[in-house]
Design a protein that fits this description.
Blueprint lengths: L5 E4 L3 E5 L5 E6 L2 E4 L4 E4 L3 H18 L6 E4 L4 E5 L1 E3 L2 E8 L2 H7 L6 E11 L8 E2 L1 H6 L5 H24 L2 E13 L6 E4 L7 E5 L9 H4 L5 H11 L8
Antiparallel strand pairs: 1-2, 2-3, 3-7, 4-5, 6-7, 8-12, 9-10, 9-12, 10-11, 12-13, 12-14
Length: 242
């Protein structure tokens, strides 16, 4: 890679340009934030772990036909990705009640949903990523009806794959966030973007219910790095869980 110009720095990652205008380098930081940046800290080796976990999960999804922005991991904290224009709508796929759903609806955390629920949020830190409807997406032109239908269908396909994968290593996939983007080289094509990691998923141990995700940081539960390591260890990415 010739050009290392920084293009963007977010709460958890940095994007750099390369000599290919349609390829970027995504760098994973150890920085941790919660509540849209209100709470800040760091998690030891988080960037290394999330890079490896994202690589594994993106590779699994691509193998079953899900288009992804991931190309290859190039270092412990970096991966090459396709350049995309992120759709300003985040999806949260929920298999159990947790987090904001429990608070909004007065439901008990951990309640199993009869089917997966897909929620849409407007991607805006200043507005605290508000929950939105399909009408909002259409009226404000954030995505076309065809794009929304594809994104929702793809999110449910991803859910089938990831639920099965995590169950095979003794983990409940409670809920998780997804982002999609339009390829810079062909804006007609959408791909899964961002990351899939304990930062973006709620992961609970099947036997004990122990949280193995960023909720340990959000809720001051301690052993945050250890939980991330445990997920990576069960995935076979490290030889020890710490």
């Amino acid at each position: 890679m010739i050009d290392r110009q920084k293009l963007y720095e977010g709460k958890a990652k940095v994007l750099f340009a390369t000599d290919d205008p349609h390829v970027l380098i995504q760098y994973f930081k150890d920085d941790a934030t919660a509540f849209n940046g209100v709470k800040k800290g760091a998690i030891h080796d988080k960037g290394v772990i999330n890079n490896r976990i994202t690589e594994r999960l993106m590779t699994i999804l691509e193998a079953v036909g899900i288009p992804v922005h991931f190309l290859e991991r190039i270092s412990e904290r970096e991966q090459k990705i396709r350049r995309v224009d992120i759709v300003p709508v985040e999806l949260v796929v929920r298999n159990r009640v947790a987090g904001s759903m429990a608070k909004r609806l007065g439901r008990e955390e951990g309640e199993i949903l009869p089917r997966p629920v897909v929620e849409f949020y407007y991607k805006s830190d200043p507005l605290d990523d508000p929950l939105i409807t399909l009408d909002h997406i259409a009226v404000f032109g954030w995505a076309s009806a065809a794009e929304v239908a594809w994104i929702q269908q793809t999110a449910l396909r991803i859910n089938d794959v990831l639920r099965g994968y995590f169950a095979s290593i003794g983990i409940h996939l409670v809920d998780y966030k997804l982002e999609f983007g339009r390829l810079s080289e062909d804006p007609r094509k959408l791909v899964l973007a961002d990351e899939i990691s304990p930062d973006t998923c709620r992961l609970w141990d099947m036997k004990t219910g122990k949280k193995l995700d960023k909720d340990r940081f959000r809720r001051d539960l301690g052993e945050v790095s250890e939980a991330y390591h445990e997920v990576a260890f069960r995935m076979g990415l490290f030889t020890t869980s710490s």
